[in-house]
Design brief:
With 459 residues, this protein is an alpha+beta fold. 52% of the residues lie in helices and 15% in strands.
Amino acid sequence: MTRLLPRTLVGQMILILLVGLAASHFVANWIYATDRGQAVRAVGGYAATQRIANLVRLIDEAPEDWRSRIVAAASDPTLRVTLSSEPLATSAGASDFADLPVQRYLVEQLPEALAARLHIFVAGPPSSRLTGFAHPMPMMGPWMHGAGNWRGLQAVVQLSNGQWLSFVTALPDAGPSASWQFVAALAVMSVIVVLTSIWAVRRVTAPLGIVAQAAERLGRDVNAPPIAEAGSMEMRQTAQAFNKMQARLQRVLGNRTRMLAGLSHDLRTPLTLLRLRIEGLPEGEERDRMLASIGDLDAMIDATLKFARDEAAAEPRRRTDLSALLSSIVDDMADAGLRVTMEPSEPVVLECQSGDLRRAVINLLDNAVKYGKSARVELLTSPVAINILIDDEGPGIPDAELQRVFEPFYRLEQSRSRETGGTGLGLAIAQSIAQAHGGQISLANRPAGGLRAIVSLPR
C-alpha cells in the first residue's frame, strides 16, 4: 500500500489536501442535502396544507349539490380528493402525528369546529403507490416523477353535514444528493487545489532544495559561497545555521593546516641537526640507512603538509577538454620513458578544476606504472557520467584491500613493495579530488589480470 503513496514532499502534501477537500466536500454536501430535503418537504407540505385548507372551507360552505363537482374538479394527480359518508382507511404503515408543523398550520387555517375533527397521517414510501385507502392513488405528478424517495400525506376531516372529506398527496423530496453538478464541482475544485497546491508547496519547499544543493557543494568545496540568508524566518534560521557550520569547518581545516605547517617546521629543525650529525659519521651501511630514514621522514612531512593544503585550497573551475588533458598527461609520461598509452577519444568538455584533476590522474598513472609495469588510459562517456579507465598489468590488489588503499598513509606490504617509494597518500589525494568534483574513484581486479582504476565524474 505504501508503494502507491507519493514519495516526494510535494506529492504527499497535495494528496493530504485532496483527501481533506474530498472528505469535507462530501460531509458538507450531505449536510446540505439533508437540510435541503427538509426545506423542500416543509415548503411542499405547507403548500399542500394551504390548498387543503382552502378546499375544506370551500366544500364545507358550498351547497350539497356542488360539493361532488368541486371535489371532482379539485382532484388531480398531485392531490387526490375524496368525499364519502364513511372515513377512508389509512395507508399501511401510516402514523398519526398530532405535533406535525403542517398539522398545526392546517389547524390554524380552519375554523375551530372543522379543526377539531381533523386528522393527519404521514406514510413512508411504498414501492409504487399509496395503498390501503378506499381509493388508492397512483404515484404520478411532478413531485413523484422519477423519484422513489417521497412521503405520503393524508388529511381527513369531517364536514359540518357529517360527510368525510379526505385528501391524499405526496410530500416532495429534494432528490438525489449526488448529481453531475456535484461531481463537476468536486472535479473543478480538485483541479484548482492541485494547481494552487503545486505552486504553494513548491514555493514553501524550494528552500529545502537550496539547502540540499549547498550541502552537496560544501562536500565538494569547503570554501564554497555561503547561502543567501533570505526568505521566510525558518529559511533564514536554516541558512544562518548552515553558514555558521561552514565557517566552523573552514576554521577547523585552517587550524589543521596551520598545525601541520607548525609541526613540519618544528620537525625539520631536529631532523636537519640529526642529518648533519649522521653525515659526520664514517661512511658505511648503517650511516646510509639512517640517512635514508631521515629522507623518508622528510618526504612524509612534505606530503602530509601538501595533502592538508590541497584539501583546504579551492581552484577555480573552468571548461576543460578532458580528452586533450589526458592526452597531454600521457604524452608527457611517455616522453619520460614510461609505458603509458591512451585509446583515441572524441573531445569531452567538462567544467572542472583542471589542475587538481591532472594531479589525480598523474597519481593513478604513477601507481599503475610503478606496480603494474604499464598503464593504458581510456575515456568513456554516457549521458550522465564521464569515466576515465586506467588499466595496468600488475598483480592486482586483494579484494579485501580495494577500499582500504584509499585511506591516508595506508600501504600494502605484500603485493606492493615499500622499496618502490611513496607515502601512501597518492590514492587518498586522488579520491579527495574526485569527490570534490562530485565523483568517485573505484578499483577492481581485471579478469585477465592487472588492476583497473575507474574515475567516475558526473556530467
